[in-house]
Specification:
Layout lengths: L11 E5 L9 H13 L3 E4 L13 H12 L6 E4 L15 H6 L3 E4 L4 H11 L3 E3 L13 H10 L6 E2 L3 E2 L14 E2 L3 E2 L4 E11 H4 L10 H7 L5 E6 L5 H13 L6 E7 L12 H9 L4 E5 L10 E3 L2 E7 L2 E6 L3
Parallel strand pairs: 1-2, 1-3, 3-4, 4-5, 10-11, 11-12, 12-13
Antiparallel strand pairs: 5-14, 6-16, 7-8, 9-13, 10-15, 15-16
Length: 327
């Protein structure tokens, strides 16, 4: 696994809109960029970042803007502007050879999963999941946001579960509106596992299964001796869709060598049968160590995960921690 060079306090970060633009949340985005600049980073944007459209530009142009940042020697890291729904459109136009020649950290959350996952599983380059460039819009950053910025500088702390989570982001005034007690559920007893972690937003991962962008089997075969730990961020899949997606992954060979599974809180939960998300997990994974309602994904606070890294994860009595060990 190739780990890109870590950043310093004066590193240049390139922001790119690979799906939506930030025109719909421009003032919050400006605050977020100011936070990054206050941390000492220099920011440059590609032309489509501030688009107000639900798709920032054509797939070809979005991929070209990514490539310009990849091949710019002054840019040390690339961060996706925000999420969206259509990043998968750019994958046919992404120049893998340039990413391989110019490995640098690429970070995003939600829809950027499709690109991050492809880079790690196909090119064997670690990527970062957890935050977008628009994610730092508070006047005082939450510890989880601060940690994400430490991680890109190579300071890799143990990430412990937080006391509270945000049940409704509409209640935000300045920063997260944390109001509910965090409790990591362990569905098959206490969890203490170590292995190589991979995953992302499962709403996006499901679209890659069986396509020409699916290099999962190559990846898990290469690292089978480590054992594979999957992490899943559920945006809006119903419990039934989640179950069917897990079954599809299993039949496609993705879940071979699985050593454990950790799942974040569901952003928009729903169901239309008696199937629950917890039941879906236990039906598919049976005796595999399982963690549910972790601090991963769309529901803040959110831990930062390095795709492709060796991690040690523990969870007991509602309290959990993640330690990324191989860097």
């Amino acid at each position: 696994m190739l780990y890109p060079k870590h950043l310093t306090n004066n590193s240049k970060i390139g922001v790119v809109a690979l799906s939506a633009g930030v025109g719909f949340c421009l003032e919050d985005y400006k605050k977020s960029i100011k936070s990054l600049e206050n941390k000492g980073f220099s920011i440059i944007e590609t032309a489509s970042v501030r688009s107000s459209e639900e798709v920032a530009n054509t797939p070809e142009i979005r991929a070209q803007e990514l490539d310009r940042l990849v091949t710019d020697d002054d840019v040390e890291m690339i961060v996706c502007a925000t999420g969206g729904d259509f990043l998968i459109e750019i994958l046919p136009y992404v120049k893998d050879e340039n990413i391989k020649k110019n490995p640098k950290w690429i970070m995003g959350a939600s829809d950027p999963t499709s690109l991050l996952y492809l880079i790690t599983t196909k090119l064997d380059i670690a990527t970062i999941y957890g935050h977008n460039a628009s994610s730092y819009d508070a006047s005082v950053l939450h510890p989880s946001q601060e940690i994400s910025l430490e991680i890109i500088k190579g300071n890799i702390p143990v990430q412990n579960s937080y006391p509270l989570y945000e049940s409704n982001r509409k209640n935000r005034i300045d920063g997260y509106a944390l109001d509910k007690e965090v409790f990591w559920e362990t569905l098959n007893g206490d969890v203490d596992i170590e292995g190589r972690i991979i995953g992302g937003c499962i709403d996006c991962l499901r679209d890659l299964i069986g396509t020409r962008f699916d290099y999962t089997k190559d990846f898990i075969e290469k690292y089978k001796e480590d054992g594979i730990i999957w992490y899943f961020d559920i945006f809006s899949l119903s419990s039934e869709d989640f179950y069917r997606t897990l079954l599809q992954m299993k039949e496609a060979g993705w879940l071979k060598y699985v050593k454990g599974v950790i799942v974040g809180r569901v952003n928009y939960p729903s169901n239309f049968t008696s199937m629950t998300y917890e039941k879906a997990l236990t039906k598919v994974f049976q005796d595999t160590p399982l963690i549910w309602n972790a601090d991963i994904g769309h529901v803040a606070p959110k831990m930062t995960i390095i795709n492709g890294s060796i991690v040690h994860i523990e969870s007991k009595d509602g309290i959990g921690k993640i330690e990324m060990k191989e860097l």
